[in-house]
TrEMBL record:
Gene Ontology MF terms in the entry: GTPase activator activity
Pfam families assigned to the protein according to its UniProt record, in alphabetical order: RabGAP-TBC
InterPro entries, per database record: Rab-GAP-TBC_dom (IPR000195), Rab-GAP_TBC_sf (IPR035969), Rab_GAP_TBC_domain (IPR050302)
Organism listed in the record: Urochloa decumbens
Domain Rab-GAP TBC: 63-254
Annotated segments matching region Disordered: 318-341
Name recorded for this polypeptide: Rab-GAP TBC domain-containing protein
């Protein structure tokens, strides 16, 4: 019997099966570890976090198993406690209260994740649930009311939990159950967006001075490309697998990860970006290459940026400046006008971009 040449197709198929099996076993081990951390219904979570905070942080950064993601998000955000402390409140808000934003919410529903099957059916279960959450929040917090960017947050949450659970997680984020409140992202004038963009611009200049200077020369500022990163926490226009991994970390560590991921995107594409003129530069900042959005590549880069202390310093500087030197007063009308455009057009631009992608 002579030597038989191996079939390349069968070799490749065998390698794929072996790889898939190894991935499955690795995922299985990860799920077992997470179930042990959480306990039945999340009963062991707080105790485990107190005893092993570094283990929890490391495992969250690696990615929460998808089958447990909804429960873990509720535990790490503090929304589970809000739900238990407010029985019947969500039902009352949905059924018995009225909102001045109802027509606006109805108009925007179909623009939120229009390519996702859960939200595609007009007046289907996905759109109805999203409407209920947004209407309930606009009543719960009438000072903030409804802003279209909230739909992307609520829509993402709905993919992993019930309406009521998603509502209380939205409340936890905007009201600051664990981390700093995010409601300033959606208040008139978008005050928190202004602050975050100011901080981000300075971080870019400090960590990547060559690119920062190039932005200055080409008259590119963060409001032109990074507003939606903060307003939707990367839940718009980025690959879903990256969005989920960012949200895993965001819910546990806070808004700093949005700065870190933004810096990582710029660092990954740095050598190309510094060569581009205005129009091509702006296009590149709104359309990152596929390899730049691989979470297993991007997140390790993001975590190399130690920004916590610097963000606190920049926040104090920003707030001190906003309180009122004569210089800041002279420039404030221009800033307000710019951010007003962001407030009225950025989110609508997101939806028009989304339509062009579908």
């Amino acid at each position: 019997m002579g030597f038989q040449k191996a079939d390349p197709y069968m070799i490749a198929k065998g390698a794929f099966v072996l790889f898939s099996f190894c991935c499955y076993r690795r995922e299985e081990r990860s799920i077992r570890k997470w179930r042990k951390m959480i306990g039945v219904g999340g009963n062991d979570w707080k105790h485990y976090v107190r005893r092993n905070p570094h283990v929890v942080k490391r495992r969250i950064r690696k990615g929460i198993p998808d089958c447990l993601r909804g429960l873990v998000w509720q535990l790490i955000s503090g929304s589970r406690d809000l739900l238990l402390m407010n029985p019947g409140v969500y039902e009352t808000l949905v059924i018995y209260e009225t909102s001045a934003s109802e027509l606006e919410i109805i108009r925007d529903i179909s623009r939120t994740f229009p390519s996702h099957i859960f939200f595609q059916q007009r007046h289907g279960p996905g759109q109805r649930s999203l409407y209920n959450i947004l209407k309930a929040y606009s009543v719960y917090d009438r000072d903030v009311g409804y802003v279209q960017g909230m739909g992307f947050l609520a829509g993402l949450l709905l993919l992993y939990m019930s309406e009521e659970d998603a509502f209380w997680l939205l409340v936890a984020l905007l009201k600051g159950a664990v981390h700093a409140p995010m409601e300033g992202l959606y208040q008139p004038g978008l005050p928190l967006v202004q602050q975050y963009l100011s901080q981000f611009e300075k971080l870019v200049m400090e960590h990547m001075p060559k690119l920062g200077q190039h932005f200055v020369e080409e008259m590119i500022n963060p409001s032109m490309y990074a507003s939606q990163w903060f307003i939707t926490v990367f839940s718009y226009s980025f690959p879903f697998h990256l969005t989920l991994r960012v949200w895993d970390v965001f819910l546990y560590e806070g808004i700093k990860v949005v700065f870190q991921v933004g810096l990582a995107l710029l660092r990954f594409c740095h050598d190309d970006l510094v060569k581009l003129p205005f129009e091509k530069l702006l296009h590149a900042l709104r359309n990152f290459p596929e390899e730049a959005t691989d979470p297993d590549v991007l997140l390790p880069i993001a975590f190399t940026f130690k920004v916590s202390n610097r963000l606190e310093e920049l926040q104090k500087e920003y707030q001190k400046g906003a309180e009122g030197t004569s210089s800041s007063k002279r420039h404030q009308p221009l800033i307000s006008k710019t951010m007003s455009r962001v407030g009225s057009r950025v989110i609508s631009n997101l939806t028009s971009d989304k339509k062009s992608q579908t």
